[in-house]
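Recall the central idea of this unit: under ordinary conditions, the amino acid sequence of a chain determines the structure it adopts. In this exercise we apply that idea directly, starting from the sequence alone.
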Amino acid sequence: MNRVKECRNCEFNFDGICVGNSDLYEYGESITDDAKCCENWNANLDCFSYEIYNAPRFLREAYHDCSISYSKFSSLLDDYVNGKSIQISIFDALKLIYGISMVDIAVLLDVTFGVVYRAKTKGFAKKRIEQFSSGLYIDREILLNCTTYNFDKLRQSNKLFWSQSNISEKLNTFPDWKKELSKTISCYLKCPINFAREFTRVDKLYWNADMPLDDFTESEKKMINYIIKHNNKQDVREINYFLDIACQPHLEVMMVNKK
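Accordingly, the structure predicted from this sequence is:
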């Protein structure tokens, strides 16, 4: 993403006057070169909005969930933009590179959604490590401690994963818990059951109207477009959807306030 730290997009630039008291300008001094930047730089509103809507998905969702502060988010974004290795949940990495969700993983490994949910939130039980590692074609080390440095290796694993015979059919099977989820979603979203069956593959998403759809999965895009279409396209501002540990869906749709 294009993220340039300059005086022109700093929150301490008040109509061309520095109110941050830095090594470049004293408090109240006129900014003569807004292409410069000091160590006290902080994003102004426009820059902040651009960051939180265009940062890599795993960072913007962590910030939206209040898992990290803005200062931590900004620091990690700096590292990511500069090509440094940063931590990422293996499940976020799999969604990004494989295009699969926790629901898909549960179906493929023939476990309940709760097993996968606990692995993401509490860590892998020892008895599950080999099952996840072999089933997803991932080295144990990467499974347990994934960073953005591992993306190239995961892309190689992704090719092996999708080269399996009938993998698409396997991922689209419906164990009993997934059948119940499809019925719940159908009632919850008031959508046809064939739509609900597609939406069962979505485990979690946060979408804002200012976000590009590029890094959402195909099932997520379909869910977003369905919700927008059935809530008046011009009115939907944000969509927040997730499955809890019991595989129950939760949805919050924020509408544009009309005056």
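The longest strand covers residues 236-243.
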